[in-house]
């Protein structure tokens, strides 16, 4: 039989544009060049078939394409391959041998077996025979599950990138509605729609078809709790006509236990670990591996650890179509209990425990889910969880936390310790919103409910000190701070002592007693470093920077404020970073007005943390804007401010750092000239001779330069100047 006279299974001709997946196409072609069995695997609707077809079109070998859809379970696949290849009579028991003989022509061939998941056993048998007997053939499978054949190379096909998903949606939407509305509102809704649909091509195609009669904004609410609004594409194979049918085909063969694991894991709101899945969903590693192999769980890596997640569509299906009565409620109870244990089991945390809890920002979606459930199922447990995680909420979601504390306090008015602890969290959020008198009122109630000793009482007095100094009650602040310090000393809590002392120093700074405040803050900083309390270190350096800038030592102020930002950055905290950024922006006004304006715009948004700034920072913002309006057109000021609002705090700080690096400090031109000569190794006498100055005048310039650089001798001044000017400045 001559292979040259036989037709091959044609690759299906595309009826629409192939969009995106450039990297995935290259990955598939690279895999086909290096492996003889390549399986494209991924969740239903992820576009495995379309990707395989595109890669096959670009491959240089002769291609035989076989669609295995509809083949009876367990049926041999050699007859289907024979039919696709145009072979006659290769349908009986010897079909596999005859197909292998035909393939063994010496000509390189690519055999594509599409939709193999329902006939994996016969596919595995076929692949084993072909791979061992026909060296010139490469197999490419598409399947939700790997074939498990020795030598198989997997290419994971997941959701589209954000940009590709939007491009696909808009392309398909305009194909059914050429005059589709295209404005910022529609774009924003489409982005959210793509996210809600997991950026799955099938879901996006179905949604785009609905754009004949809907806009993205109109479709979004229809998807809440159900994907049925996506509708039907009757041109697709039956299991791809709806997203629900696609997922149903993936879950049909699950054992009762695996189905239960999938349902229970649907309560997670974000990627979860294997240990979390064991606690909440009763999943073993084997269970997780099985669900991953079926593309019902997706995997990712976060800081060296594997994380699992269900796509939104799978979660919705598991909850609405698979859950037994009461099963979800029980899973949500376990989820709440898991977080309750994770955050102290109801014991009010110490300062460093709170700080450690605050680093778990990745669990914020889980906290939201658990707290929502607790309001209906276990209010006290929810209150204990909310109280334990107060610092986390303070750092990233102050306004949301304020609302949540109000709901819990209303739901359970019992005058007990749990209420007192939630009141403390509420006090913190009220302070961040500059509602100091409300904070003091809530604090008074909390103190009546909490034990007189322990971490909660110490924290209450600490918050009292903060609220009082912000409200201008400096004597009351001093008294509360002293009580907090006394309790933290009794507890042996060095971090607490640092925060209590730091509060005293901060109050002195805000009262205008900057030198005195600096001395207190230095003591607090030493304790914070001893305790390893990075957040407290950043807070102390922020207010020390404000104090130093008020004293006119701008170089030292910048150094302190940048250090504060760096410390906050290390722990992912944004709660106070905006204060440091605002002052740095005001100090940059004479260096780079536009950069200062962008930084102020960034600080004004508070990066989504909520709350409001103290009047000191608001004054910085107002100064920057007023200065800019005197120098620039109002339209440019507004544009720069708006551009800054899109900048993260850390990025805005980096811009200011670059500005700062271009200047050797706030030295006068003559001081700069003298400092440069000091850095060159000249003595005062030599500098005086070079610049035609008296030696006493040079000595004065050196002294002022050392004071501004905050260094104690000429050697240190030379090192400071060289380090600041080497990269950007020529020798003066």
Automatic annotation (TrEMBL):
Q: Which PROSITE patterns match?
A: HTH_LUXR_1, HTH_LUXR_2
Q: Name the domain of life.
A: Bacteria
SMART domains from the entry?
HTH_LUXR
Stretches assigned to the HTH luxR-type domain: 660-725
Alphabetized Pfam families for the sequence: AAA_22 (PF13401), GerE (PF00196)
User: Know the name of this protein?
Assistant: LuxR C-terminal-related transcriptional regulator
- Organism of this sequence: Arthrobacter horti
